[in-house]
Amino acid sequence: MNTLAAAIEAILFSSNRPLRLRELQHVLDSDRAAIEHALDELRESLTHRGLMLQRHQDQVQLVTRPELAGYVRRALRPEVTGRLSTAAYETLAIVAYQQPVTRSKIEEIRGVNSDGVISNLELRDLVKEVGRGTGPGQPRLFGTTMRFLQMLGLESLEDLPFPEPPVAAESATDGRHEPGSQPEVREESPSPSA
Fold first, then answer.
1. In terms of DSSP H, where are the helices of 49-158?
2. 42, 49, 138, 141: which could form a disulfide with 5 (CB 3.0–4.6 Å)?
3. Which structural domains are found in the chain, ordered by start?
4. Which of 66, 63, 53, 75 is nearest to 16 (CA)?
5. Which residues contact 100 (CB under 8 A, 6 or more apart)?
6. How far apart are CA 124 and CA 131, in angstroms?
7. Which residues contact 136 (CB under 8 A, 6 or more apart)?
């Protein structure tokens, strides 16, 4: 492989995004024809390897071959497997609609200890600490992450659907939630600053 193709491989490997051909031309101080030739050489050298050169119009990116993506996922996040539990979905919904929210507020709404569930959601990069409260002990405030938006296919928190109002009369439960019941969430616009 020639030096230009090797340089493109190194640049694409180090980048976490697609690059435009003109960016490569500028960085490598080469003309378009030389870049195209080097890309063809790189593509050929990657045949039967774990990476491939992905190209869309004037953008190129070095990516994992789709048939090997499962191995990469397991290697990068071996502890994050399986589906979310009902408790995790409940907690995630509370964080999404109440953010920034403290662990104690989450537990007040759910009616049970949520330490393990919050830790699992943090491990999966669905919630994170977004600040500290002003109350005693300055409790951690939780909010959703970019990964949360990606998982739901949303552009922003403003795209979250508003929850239906609770059907049961509050007098039946004195405003408290029974364990396992649906948590009530405020019908306010989610904070886009999280």
1. 69-76, 86-98, 103-110, 115-123, 146-152
2. 42
3. 3-69 (1.10.10.10), 86-172 (1.10.10.10)
4. 63
5. 130, 131, 141, 142, 143, 191, 194
6. 19
7. none
**What confidence tens digit (pLDDT) does each residue in 59-111 have?**
899 888 888 888 887 777 655 556 888 999 999 999 999 999 999 999 999 99
Element (H, E) at 64: strand 59-64
Q: Is-above-0.90 flag for pTM?
A: no
Measured in degrees and rounded to the nearest 5, phi and psi for residue 7 equal -65, -40
Q: How many CB atoms lie within 10 A of CB 45?
A: 14
Mapped onto helix, strand or coil, the DSSP state of residue 168 is coil
Token pair, residue 63, equals: 């990516």
Tens of pLDDT along 122-173? 988 899 999 998 888 899 999 998 888 878 777 788 888 887 777 765 544 4
Task: Return the bridge partners of 59, or none.
Answer: 20, 56
Identity of the amino acid at 78: P
Structure tokens at 4: 């230009």
How far apart, in whole angstroms, are the C-alpha atoms of residue 40 and residue 55? 11
